[in-house]
């Protein structure tokens, strides 16, 4: 705790990611998982979405230089897709601390959700890393006045030209929101008899005790995965993020933690409309929903709904692991263990998980 306190005071930053706190061991575990499962007969290619200060990239390149067969390190490519030009410069500086890494590393300063930025579809195998990316992606809020009414989009409109905003509810019209609602089954019509009875009971209750519903939909995640599956159909994906967030006071399913930092103190907002300017917004990741979105974007879910003569084969194999389980499987937990046996790499960050998704290579 003293070490963390010094670190935060020295850098005056609101949040350090695990890859920074546990360098190089956190990134080494990710590199080990790639090396264990990659097809080494083709050159290794890794994309990182939102590479931060470049710590993950440098540590993975270090690991490959030290542990992979020389051919793997010498022919590999590591591409950071970074929207911030200042962070892109910082990444080149960090990776450049080891001169030989620079010939294998590149930064592409662009928005990863923009399909045009990826160029032509690349069918070759590659890896995509997203560490603490999903929690920062845009989400859309939907609302229903009771348990049975259809979901509506939430719009923010300014009050009398001031900077203050208020919510306005409109029928679903945004295609991303509508698709997200469909993937989650929030407006499911094909329900069982038992569910219909429960639905009818809810209808009675909603008239007697109407209870508004609110849900935050990961539309930014849907847009990004759609783009990645179109551009890199043979990608293997590793994502890590928060599975839940403590002390969230904003209402709604998958509601964010919205906080501001002033004079070294963090203030959590009870209403997202209050947060203007430089507030941090963190969304929890529903990993079950992430898997559904991943399968939908790969085309598997569409085949399930419209099966032909043959039963569709899964296009992705996915696994969700607690961060501690991932680190025990691929990492070196002894390196972060303290004298009394406490291990922050395993014992802290209990609210984070890893999502691994790889192509099955099955063909119909």
TrEMBL record:
Location, primary (coarse class): mitochondrion
Keyword Secreted (UniProt): no
UniProt key word Transferase: yes
Sample GO molecular function, one term: protein-arginine omega-N symmetric methyltransferase activity
EC number(s) given by UniProt: 2.1.1.320
Catalytic function, reaction form: L-arginyl-[protein] + 2 S-adenosyl-L-methionine = N(omega),N(omega)'-dimethyl-L-arginyl-[protein] + 2 S-adenosyl-L-homocysteine + 2 H(+)
GO annotation terms (biological process): methylation
Source domain of life: Eukaryota
InterPro entries per UniProt: NDUFAF7, NDUFAF7_sf, SAM-dependent_MTases_sf
Alphabetic keyword roster: Methyltransferase, Mitochondrion, Transferase
EC top class, as a word: transferase
Subcellular location: Mitochondrion
GO CC terms: mitochondrion
Function in brief: Arginine methyltransferase involved in the assembly or stability of mitochondrial NADH:ubiquinone oxidoreductase complex (complex I).
Similarity comment text for this entry: Belongs to the NDUFAF7 family.
Name of the featured protein: Protein arginine methyltransferase NDUFAF7
Organismal lineage: Eukaryota, Viridiplantae, Streptophyta, Embryophyta, Tracheophyta
């Amino acid at each position: 705790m003293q070490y963390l306190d010094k670190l935060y005071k020295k850098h005056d930053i609101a949040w350090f990611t695990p890859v920074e706190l546990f360098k190089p061991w956190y990134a080494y575990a990710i590199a080990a998982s790639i090396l264990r499962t990659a097809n080494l007969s083709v050159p290794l290619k890794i994309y990182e979405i939102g590479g931060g200060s470049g710590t993950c990239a440098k540590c993975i390149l270090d690991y490959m230089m030290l542990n992979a067969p020389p051919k793997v390190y010498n022919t590999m490519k590591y591409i950071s897709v970074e929207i911030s030009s200042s962070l892109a410069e910082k990444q080149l500086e960090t990776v450049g601390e080891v001169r030989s890494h620079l010939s294998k590393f590149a930064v592409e300063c662009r928005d990863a959700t923009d399909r045009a930025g990826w160029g032509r579809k690349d069918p070759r195998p590659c890896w995509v890393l997203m560490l603490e990316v999903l929690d920062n992606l845009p989400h859309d809020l939907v609302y229903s006045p009771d348990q049975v009414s259809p979901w509506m989009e939430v719009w923010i409109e300014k009050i009398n030209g001031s900077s203050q905003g208020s919510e306005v509810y409109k029928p679903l019209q945004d295609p991303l929101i509508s698709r997200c609602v469909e993937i989650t089954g929030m407006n499911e019509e094909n329900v069982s008899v038992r569910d219909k009875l429960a639905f009818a009971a809810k209808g009675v209750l909603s008239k007697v005790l109407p209870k508004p519903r609110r849900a935050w939909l990961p539309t930014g995640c849907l847009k990004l995965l759609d783009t990645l599956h179109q551009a890199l159909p043979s990608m293997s994906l590793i994502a890590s993020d928060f599975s839940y967030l403590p002390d969230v006071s904003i209402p709604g399913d998958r509601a964010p933690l919205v906080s501001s930092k002033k004079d070294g103190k963090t203030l959590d907002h009870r209403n997202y409309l209050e947060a203007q300017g430089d507030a941090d917004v963190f969304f929890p990741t529903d990993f079950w929903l992430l898997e559904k979105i991943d399968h939908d974007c790969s085309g598997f879910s569409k085949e399930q709904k419209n099966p032909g003569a043959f039963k569709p084969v899964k296009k992705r194999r996915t696994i969700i692991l607690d961060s501690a389980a991932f680190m025990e499987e691929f990492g070196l937990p002894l390196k972060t263990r303290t004298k009394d046996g406490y291990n922050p790499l395993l014992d802290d960050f209990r609210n984070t998980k890893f999502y691994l998704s790889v192509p099955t290579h099955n063909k119909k």
